[in-house]
């Protein structure tokens, strides 16, 4: 075997794809972790990384996928999984991973983070009525507030659903006023996108936004 072949063999066997058979028991532990963390005000997922050997624990306030955070990174090695943190640790068995995760979720800092997410899930969402789809931000965009019940309605609707959502202009001197003749093309609210067909202001100040929900990688 040539030196180049030895290098190829070493590289090909150095790590394990998280989809490989030997990784499945570890992945099942992570899925159980996410299931245990889901609850009132909190959504938890195990997200894939661009590298197939990587998974992330991602948390976000309920119905607000765009306000999420990656909390833990898991790298699948040939004989275990490496949990990245202040000091990366390698778990050599699913039981060892379970034990470490139980210890982690009891840490005060992690529990505080969960409380922050729960609190955010009860608050209005600061959303944006966009004038263009070509930019995430424009000074001509109008900031609006979306009540928790309306945000939930937006979140649970299926992609391509036609929705009518009531929002309120965020009262701030720098926030543009609503102009009936102006064209708003999208409503972005905590990672959810509505393609706007019609947008009008009612006499009581409520802004009625009608449109179609986009599919979202975060939703």
Describe it for me?
With 219 residues, the protein is of the alpha+beta class. The chain folds into 2 domains: 3-120; 125-213, no CATH class. Helices cover 26% and strands 33% of the residues. The protein contains 5 helices and 11 strands, in the order ααβββββααββαββββ. The strands form 2 sheets. A 6-stranded antiparallel barrel has the order 6-7-8-11-10-9. It has a 5-stranded antiparallel beta sheet with strand order 1-2-3-4-5. The termini are far apart. The model has no long low-confidence stretch (mean pLDDT 90).
Concise structural overview:
This protein is of the alpha+beta class and 219 residues long.
Keywords, please?
219 residues; alpha+beta; 2 domains; five-stranded antiparallel β-sheet; 5 helices; elongated
What are the SSEs and their pairings?
Elements: H1 3-12, H2 24-37, E1 42-48, E2 54-61, E3 69-77, E4 80-84, E5 89-91, H3 94-105, H4 108-120, E6 125-130, E7 142-146, H5 148-156, E8 162-169, E9 186-189, E10 192-201, E11 207-213
Antiparallel strand pairs: 1-2, 2-3, 3-4, 4-5, 6-7, 6-9, 7-8, 8-11, 9-10, 10-11
């Amino acid at each position: 075997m040539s030196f180049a072949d030895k290098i190829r063999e070493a590289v090909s066997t150095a790590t394990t794809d998280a989809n490989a058979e030997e990784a499945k028991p570890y992945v099942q532990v992570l899925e159980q972790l996410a299931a245990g963390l889901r609850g009132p005000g909190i959504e938890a997922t195990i997200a894939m990384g661009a590298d197939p050997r990587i998974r992330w624990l991602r948390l976000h306030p309920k119905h607000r996928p765009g306000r999420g955070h990656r909390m833990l990174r898991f790298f699948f090695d040939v004989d275990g999984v490496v949990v990245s943190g202040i000091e990366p640790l390698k778990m050599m068995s699913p039981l060892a991973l379970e034990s470490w995760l139980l210890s982690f979720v009891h840490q005060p800092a992690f529990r505080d983070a969960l409380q922050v997410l729960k609190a955010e899930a009860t608050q209005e969402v600061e959303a944006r009525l966009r004038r263009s789809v070509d930019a995430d931000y424009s000074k001509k965009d109008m900031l609006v507030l979306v009540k928790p019940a309306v945000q939930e309605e937006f979140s649970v609707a299926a992609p391509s659903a036609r929705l009518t959502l009531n929002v309120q202009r965020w009262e701030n001197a720098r926030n543009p006023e609503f102009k009936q003749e102006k064209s708003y093309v999208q409503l972005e609210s905590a990672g959810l996108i509505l393609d706007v067909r019609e947008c009008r202001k009612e006499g009581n100040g409520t802004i009625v936004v009608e449109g179609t929900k986009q599919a979202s990688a975060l939703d």
